[in-house]
């Protein structure tokens, strides 16, 4: 069997490593930090079984105008960063055209539909049941108009993809979430998603499972990858790490490595923030405050508020506008206490313009494999795309693998 160097110890990398290991391959995971320390730590902790359609770039004029004028808390942008982001954003805009997005969603829905099933055996084997809630994902809507629009869209999603949801108002809403203290118009409850009280800890538990089964997790410089004879080598903290194959699972850093090998990967980096706050009550499930684009989730460290997208270069200074505005708004829905010291984080979602992850073999390098570009759903889809990659390595070829293939995506 082959020995794979998996570059990246987030949920995508650890998911790929476990899947390859399960098929008999040797595996070493290499990262500069411990597992689950980057984007896999910072997300809202939802395994989004309801996310049948990836996030498209809005194309209607009122929404774009609200973004342009800074009226929406969903998206924040900076003029200084637009020139560098413009080519990928233009491709994203084109791929978001309704017919193209509908075709993409038919593929994407097949991935998210199996997400909880792919996590389930890993949750059990890693003794992580205490981190998981199977209580769905809620959306609070403050106006009747917003609730009606969301309900119509949820009904369409249900008809098209079989994703269950229901609308709760009045006493039914407050029974569903006893910590609610505001008076929104209603709650859209997606019933299929799971959530996690510490997504970084879940990723580390999966990595510990990999090690217990004979794999290795080592500290090293993933960007040092180079060909070594007929295989691959990366520099670890304790010396070189060699393998017959290498898998790029570096999320937003994947283009940095691959550019050195001649691959130009366009990516939209959507920065997200979270902050932790003291909270007197545990929420039953995570909630999106639909009007202000912030997700509220009870975590081990406290109440985590996670923001939407900031279109910014990766080295730009931190801007807490979305988080601060979201906190003020969320305080109208649930009680939010004082900030927890050192509880603010930011990172970048690796969003590809066509909204599908790249999974499969590198077009021009034998033994090099891709598994990145999950956008908002790396925590959700890590085990799923990892399982698919392992199947592709062993010869799987069909319409789904063709849709995710780097060779078919212009690389």
TrEMBL record:
Q: Name one GO cellular component term.
A: cytoplasm
Enumerate the UniProt keywords alphabetically: Oxidoreductase
UniProt keyword Oxidoreductase, yes or no = yes
Listed SUPFAM superfamilies? FAD/NAD(P)-binding domain (SSF51905)
Q: Where is the FAD dependent oxidoreductase domain?
A: 4-391
Instruction: Keyword check for Oxidoreductase, yes or no.
Output: yes
What Gene Ontology molecular-function terms does this entry list?
oxidoreductase activity
Locate the transmembrane regions by residue number. none
Protein name, entry field: D-amino-acid dehydrogenase
Organism from which the protein derives:
Tropicimonas isoalkanivorans
